[in-house]
Specification:
This protein is of the alpha+beta class and 880 residues long. It folds into five domains: 5-256, 2-Layer Sandwich (BirA Bifunctional Protein, domain 2), CATH 3.30.930.10; 258-436; 442-454 and 466-554, Elongation Factor Tu (Ef-tu), domain 3 (Beta Barrel); 559-709, 2-Layer Sandwich (Threonyl-tRNA Synthetase, Chain A, domain 2), CATH 3.30.980.10; 766-878, Diaminopimelate Epimerase, Chain A, domain 1. The longest helix is centred in the last third of the chain and has 35 residues, at 730-764. It is globular and about 105 Å long. The termini are far apart.
Length: 880
């Protein structure tokens, strides 16, 4: 019965292949056809549309080994990973599916044969127990009468809290979607089962391991309270590869199976701890698989959405590396081991090896800088906790300042048996959101408040026409539907058809006018509202009412400039992939009439020569004046042509494809130039890194490029005049100027050092003593803050126990800096000194216990403030 994990995968697929199933590859961890799911969490996700009869089935019988990820929501396993024997974030699900073909009897018999047949998995029949849903009489009869399972080994599972279908044996993919009763097969892990040491379900619960779930898809959950029958019944089964491997390899933990043991050994090379049963080894082994496949599926660490989940997993693994004494950058070095154990079946990782390693390395280097500091702070705060609860503001501070995801903090607290005040944490997070919110309230209000009939549609004719005849269908003013709009009123007008392109796919909306012989409405933006298009603007002349006939005419100059930049975006995407590799993936774009912005994933820095090469490729395509074509074809045909699509976008069966020869083929609903030559010239004006592994390029085309180059010419000419040189030797003259400035700065520093030494000598003479404490409080004039810091750093050595406070007057302002030696901070701090001083001068400042600084604006109150601070310091020292 002892089989390797790779053998189990192959045996499973071969068994169902012999039963007439076709073998389909695993889908991505990102579900493309379902925006209700963050990640693929079950084998059936890729077949959801088929279960709902919304998509044609590929074959009535299918089998897969599906990559899955569970980290949040209904299926949240991350907190248990490493602390139990069975939980994982990433796992593989063995599944067989029937789409309106075989049903309960065949599904149950196939599972029993595979598990118990001597030529397949050969598990002793007496080791298996069964569960069925209370209303599923048919399944019970199959198990009892046909398979001949005794009644005392068939467990009937009812509903929780007397709520129908709220049962462990009623399976649901999520809050909505396909669902149905299920029957589960359990393996008895108890060693003495053949001697009937424990012979009832109640006694055996701790020993029963669920290995296979057979779901009978009969219903569709519409909402919490509504479930409707499906017209076609299907079978969805799932058997965790890691679980069945633990059974067939006769081990009591998933982490003891061959693939995990090999990974854990690789991790142990970096750690001084040699106890391979330590939970941290298991957590790292689990998490490195998740990270490898997420990055392979083009997820990049970020602070949002799926990227944030990836970042959480990485940082949790790094924390556990720290816990088992790993001091070096190590996480990315585990990727070769992951590829080695997974590659025989999944060939995707090796193709992306360099990309995965680079992204993990960058993320680890960045987080390691703050990990130690954050953990020290957290442990200090845990020691201070009362009633076993960590304050939520501390948890938020760790998140906001050190990048600790909340579940990483929770993980550390869990180990110390401490809970987090999540209410306080969420309150702090909400405050931060309000502070950083920069949303456009005007348009947000319109989008949220406008309620249109679902049947309202507007036919877009703007691909072919810049002007169309239309009828006004609906008018909104201040979020309310009205029958007419009058002069100087701002509103949104909806038409039956339009030439205006609504903001979509990164392309901004058109501007222009709606008009007839009596009225003129200036359109300042165009947006989508459900299936229709809203023209946002102001009525300039006359009035417009429902059912009026008008013309919609776009601003052609504005549209043409947008089209040039949109076509340039496609050329840029293609040139990046051509020059940097196919791992480049679009992460966002903005196409305006003035410039284009393109965000993409790429783990390395892009140097100037690479950017210039990309520019050269694009401008060569522009010079070739290639015809740009658009076609509406099936999504299947578009995939055959290897058309690039937005990674997380859901497409309809018929899609629009924009082609620039074979150089660029993309799915796109936007408007484009007719030929590449229309762009004139392409110029990159900005390159930056906006997040870990995410780069941004901004560029311009056409007349904007000419204006940009002319501006550069003017700037160079102005610099030449200032330097009294010509353009040909401007660089040489600037270098000479830099050398001269450096020499002068050096001389100034030498003079400043001499001045500081003299000033320090004079200041030492003014030191006062209160008991054994040295005090130096002095007003200085026209000094830079940097100079004051230097003087304090040089004086500190002479103050074993003492306080320094400098108040500097410059340009009618006050600057203050204070220092307190470590052995005094229990009774007085530098930060408190600054606060006490500056509150009298209407100033503010900050710092820490030893060093603090700030500034004030009421210089007239300085004498009073100085008198107060001297008395306050004396009192504090005498009372220590």
């Amino acid at each position: 019965m002892n089989k390797t994990t790779n053998e189990i995968r192959s045996n499973f697929l071969n068994f169902f292949k012999k039963k007439g199933h076709i073998v389909l590859p695993s889908s991505s961890l990102v579900p493309h056809n379902d925006n209700t799911l963050l990640f693929t969490n079950a084998g059936m996700n890729q077949f959801k549309d088929i279960f709902l009869n919304e998509k044609k089935r590929p074959h009535p019988r299918v089998t897969t080994v599906q990559r899955c990820l569970r980290t949040g929501g209904k299926h949240n396993d991350i907190e248990n990973v490493g602390y139990t024997t069975r939980h994982h974030t990433f796992f593989e699900m063995l599944g067989n599916f029937s789409f309106n073909d075989y049903f309960k009897k065949e599904a149950i018999m196939y599972a029993w044969e595979l598990l118990t047949s001597p030529i397949w998995f050969n598990i002793p029949k007496k080791k298996l127990w069964i569960s069925v849903y209370k209303d599923d009489k048919e399944s019970y009869e199959i198990w009892n009468k046909i398979i001949e399972i005794p009644p005392d080994r068939i467990i009937i599972i009812g509903d929780k809290d007397n709520i129908q279908y709220n049962s462990d044996n009623f399976w649901q993919m999520g809050d909505t979607g396909p669902c149905g009763p299920c029957t589960e097969i359990f393996y008895d892990c108890e060693q003495n089962t053949l001697n009937h040491h424990l012979d009832t379900f109640e006694k055996k619960q701790d020993y029963l391991l669920e290995i296979w779930n057979i779901v009978f898809i009969e219903f569709n959950r519409i909402s919490d309270t509504k479930i409707i029958p499906l017209s076609a019944k299907s079978i969805d089964t799932g058997m965790g590869l890691e679980r069945i491997a633990s059974v067939l390899q006769n081990v009591l933990s998933n982490y003891k199976i061959d693939i995990f043991q090999e990974l854990i050994k690789s991790i142990s090379y970096f750690s001084p701890i040699k106890d391979l049963n330590h939970p941290s080894f298991k957590i790292i082994a689990d998490h490195i698989r998740s990270c490898a496949y997420l990055i392979s599926d083009n997820i990049i660490p970020s602070n949002e959405h799926r990227g944030y989940v990836l970042r959480r997993i990485i940082r949790r693994a790094l924390r556990h590396g720290h816990k088992i004494g790993i001091k070096e950058i190590f996480f990315y070095k585990l990727i070769p081991s992951v590829i080695k154990i997974m590659e025989p079946f999944h060939n995707k990782l090796n193709c992306n090896k360099e990309k995965i390693e680079n992204i993990l390395k960058i993320e680890e280097i960045q987080f390691t800088k703050t990990l130690d500091k954050g953990l020290k702070l957290l442990k200090k705060e845990i020691q201070k906790t009362k009633n076993g609860i960590l304050n939520g503001d501390i948890a938020f501070y760790l998140y906001d300042t050190f990048g600790f995801p909340i579940d990483l903090t929770a993980d550390v607290c869990y180990e110390h048996k401490i809970k987090i005040n999540y209410q306080e944490y969420n309150q702090e997070k909400e405050k931060q959101k309000k502070k950083s919110s920069l949303s456009n309230k005007f348009y947000k209000n319109y989008n949220e408040a406008i309620i249109l009939n679902n049947n309202d549609t507007c036919y877009f004719q703007g691909y072919q026409k810049y002007k169309t005849h239309a009828v006004i269908k609906t008018i909104f003013i201040q979020n309310k539907e009205v029958k007419k709009i009058e002069k100087n009123q701002i509103g949104i007008i909806f038409l039956n058809q339009t030439s205006f392109y609504a903001e979509s796919g990164g392309q901004i909306g058109d501007i222009g006018k709606l008009y007839n012989t009596e009225s003129y409405f200036k359109v300042e933006d165009t947006k989508k509202y459900g299936n229709t298009i809203g023209h946002i603007g102001k009525l300039i002349i006359g009035k417009m009412t429902i059912n009026d006939h008008i013309y919609s005419k776009i601003d052609t100059v504005h549209r043409n400039n947008i089209q040039l930049n949109h076509t340039a975006t496609h050329l840029l995407h293609a040139a990046l992939r051509c020059n940097l590799g196919d791992n480049v993936a679009q992460k966002g774009s903005l196409v305006t009439d003035k410039y284009l912005r393109f965000d993409f994933s790429y783990p390395k820095h892009i140097n100037l020569s690479q950017l210039q090469k990309i520019e050269k490729i694009i401008n060569l395509k522009i010079q070739n004046n290639i015809l740009i074509t658009s076609q509406e074809i099936s999504l299947k045909e578009a995939k055959k042509r290897k058309a690039i699509s937005l990674f997380e976008y859901s497409y309809k069966p018929i899609v629009r494809v924009i082609s620039i020869n074979d150089f660029s083929i993309e799915l796109c609903g936007g408007t484009h130039a007719t030929r590449t030559g229309d762009l004139g010239y392409f110029k990159i004006i900005s390159y930056s890194s906006i997040a870990s592994g995410i780069k941004r390029i901004e560029a311009i085309t056409g007349e904007s490029t000419i204006d940009y180059l002319h501006k550069i010419d003017h700037d160079i000419q102005d610099i030449s005049l200032i330097l009294k040189s010509n353009n040909s030797n401007i660089k040489e003259n600037i270098n000479k100027l830099i050398i001269q400035i450096y020499s002068l700065e050096k001389q100034v520093k030498q003079l400043q050092d001499k001045t500081n030494k003299y000033q320090i000598k004079k200041l030492i003479e003014k030191i006062e003593h209160i008991q054994d404490v040295k005090i130096l409080i002095e007003i200085l004039y026209e000094n830079h803050l940097k100079t004051l810091r230097t003087i304090i750093n040089q004086l500190k050595n002479k103050f074993e126990k003492g306080i320094i406070l400098f108040i500097n007057k410059k340009d009618k302002n006050i600057t203050a800096i204070s220092y307190v030696s470590k052995n005094l901070i229990n009774c007085i701090t530098a930060k408190k000194i600054i606060q006490e001083l500056l509150q009298k001068t209407h100033g503010k400042g900050g710092g820490n216990n030893e060093m603090a600084e700030g500034g004030g604006i009421n210089i007239q109150k300085l004498p009073l403030a100085l008198q107060h601070i001297k008395l306050w310091i004396h009192k504090k020292i005498l009372n220590q």
